[in-house]
Prior knowledge:
Blueprint: H1 7-16, H2 18-39, E1 44-53, H3 66-83, H4 86-96, H5 102-107, E2 109-113, E3 119-126, H6 129-146, E4 153-158, H7 173-198, H8 205-212, H9 225-248
Antiparallel strand pairs: 1-3, 1-4, 2-3
Amino acid sequence: MEETISLKELLETLRKRILLILAITFTAVTVSGIVSFFFLTPIYQASTQILINKSNMDQGNYSYNPQELQASLQLINTYNVIIKSPAILDLVIDEMNLDMTSAQLSDKITVGSENDSQVMNVSVQDEDANQAAAIANTIAKVFKTENIMKADNINILAKAEVAEGQAPIKPQPTLNIAIAMVVGLMVGVGLAFLLEYLDNTVKNEQDVEKNLGLPILGVISVIEESKLEDIRKRRTDRKTRTRGEFFGS
């Protein structure tokens, strides 16, 4: 016979294990908050924008040939690789006297084009917001000076700056705590149902009827010790009164 579980039984399982669920959720939230606020190092980000095109401004040619524009767009991926190459980063490290290798510096840099345009966005992440901005600006300057691809025009559209009271991009304690709460609830609920599934003890007459398939003919109630003592006391008092009435007559 196929066993079915009613919504009432599910809710009863959750009610019975509510302390376990809350304990796991509270622990997950607490650990996430402590780690986010006290153990994770804040990381800041600064960005600069570079415009690269093939137009010849000195000759007053402000119109774009569609083929030249397409070729410029295709070169963006090449420029992205060049910016993160040792040919550029080694010069940045030397100029700023950074205590890191070009590979380590490359891991801090993200380069991408703005909506497939000829504008490249160079973002740098670092534990120090001022150093992140300085690295981004130095990369843009060195890239423009070296001009490895011999582009006609390389212009720095926007320098990286540190805003007053700039917040780190990570960690995000509020988001981490929210995720920990959801995960804690999921783990708590899952563990509650698992424990209920593994619990094969007989607790009441319904379990006997369900597991053995036999009808219940009677139930022996459980009498608490305090109630049992009260019953004994009443019996003793009744016997005392009965004896008193007998000898009094």
